[in-house]
Amino acid sequence: MKRDARKHAANALRAAALPLCLLLVMFCFDARPALSQGGAAAPKWETVKAGGMSIDMPGKPSRQTQTVQSAGGPVEVHLIGIDRGSEGFMVSHNEFPAVIANALTDTKTLLDAGRDGALKNADGKLISERDLTLGGHPGREVVGEVPSKKTAFTLRVYWVKPHLYQVIYLHPQASAVTADGRKFLDSPRVEQTAAPAN
Q: Which residue among 12, 47, 94, 187 sits deepest, i.e. has the most Cβ atoms within 10 Å of its Cβ?
């Protein structure tokens, strides 16, 4: 039974890695020129609530919810995103059913599955990765490229049981992470009361 639960959990986690793929569909930079430093108006930043997390975003985002089917049951994924022409900003969050969340006891395996699912769904290439924490909760940063879209991305995944948070920033492959991109990536705060995972 425990083995089945872990298998369902891994499948559900890979399914929940779909937001990166969705963001790539929404923000394809193949034919978009990068904005010049002086050509874009300074954004009006907003603090956005994403489940039990808050994050700063450069403007008013759009929101949608998608239900992802997995072997462990349906997983509702909430998506919050902004298209700034040459940059894409997205936050996703979902709450796993108790049977899945309780089976996710190996944080490394959990984050590996999230990384592998995101790269597979997006047909991406891994450039680098490193471990992170958010309020004492485990996370992983994945930096990669999607050559077919001429796009680079930074994905930060955080596990705050039973919630999975994903912070995704996209930019043209030929350019670096901007100051706004860095500010966005570094801004998440956990608001809910939860014991850090072991």
A: 12
The token pair at 194 is: 């939860």
Please tell me the total number of residues recorded for the chain in this structure.
198
> What's the token pair of residue 29?
């930079």
Q: What is the mean pLDDT of each run of 10 residues along the chain (198 residues)?
A: 52 56 48 37 88 94 82 77 88 82 80 82 90 95 91 92 91 93 96 55
Tokens matching residue 146: 């999607």
d(CA 58, CA 90): 11
Q: What share of the chain is helix, strand, coil (3-state, %, to 5)?
A: 25, 40, 35
Residue whose C-alpha is closest to residue 139's, from 155, 128, 124, 118 = 155
Decide if 79 contacts 93 (C-beta within 8 A).
Answer: no
How many Å is the maximal CA-CA distance in the chain?
59
pTM: 0.82
- For residue 38, give both structure tokens: 């002086």
Tell me the C-alpha to C-alpha distance, in Å, between residue 158 and each of 36, 80, 175: 32, 16, 26
Q: What is the CA radius of gyration of the chain?
A: 16
